[in-house]
From TrEMBL:
Keywords: Oxidoreductase. It comes from the Bacteria. Signal peptide: none annotated. Belongs to the short-chain dehydrogenases/reductases (SDR) family. It is an enzyme of class 1 (oxidoreductase). This is Glucose 1-dehydrogenase. Its EC number is 1.1.1.47. PROSITE patterns: ADH_SHORT (PS00061). It holds the Pfam family adh_short_C2.
Amino acid sequence: MGLLEGKVALITGGARGMGAAHVRLFLEEGARVVFGDVLDEEGKALADETGAAYVHHDVTLAEDWARAVATATELHGQLDVLVNNAGILKFRRIADMSPDDFDRVISVNLKGTWLGIKSVIGPMKAAGRGAIVNISSIEGFVGAEGLSAYSASKFGVRGLTKSAARELARFKIRVNSVHPGAINTSMAMDPDLMNEVDADAFLKSMVIKRFAKPVEVSHVVAFLASDRASYCTGSEFTVDGGLLTGAGY
């Protein structure tokens, strides 16, 4: 029997990268999965490949959240797990970043997570329990040059996670955050970011000296979504190969 047998999960930003890895692993572990994204072509292709249900989902819009949640409950009769995975990264130094670019990052990464939590409270209360996993970042622990908006949003996800954990424990809804480090995804390999990073110095700062596969994050997310994490809430889980322990970071 899979780790998530019998559970229904909604995963945002699921069309590619880490989100797609979550979709595939959750299915392997027995979950029924609905996933959303704004990348319709990639999303529909993944749905055709895996059998998961895809819905167009802009996480900044309350009406898109209502549609995604309704899709899960109408297809499967319940909603047990939310993975707030959708996120964007914009490399710009503060002096060069426009207010609109800052607002966009905060809206997707932080407001989108808040809307997700708000949107699933009803069905999870009806189910009698639930698990919410918010994807933050190691940039939620440290600031990085050129990532002021991204770091601010991911620090915010930490605080939101802890507040939600306190509010929702009475309904048996657990809320935790996961903080990936150097993960081999297209977002992490953003050209503007890569042009500014000293790759050799970055590699030397790692304890495990390689980038992670997205599924290595997914295994931690699946654990937190499962009943095996029944006493975990308001907690922060790094998946960074020891990067935060490096003296050079």
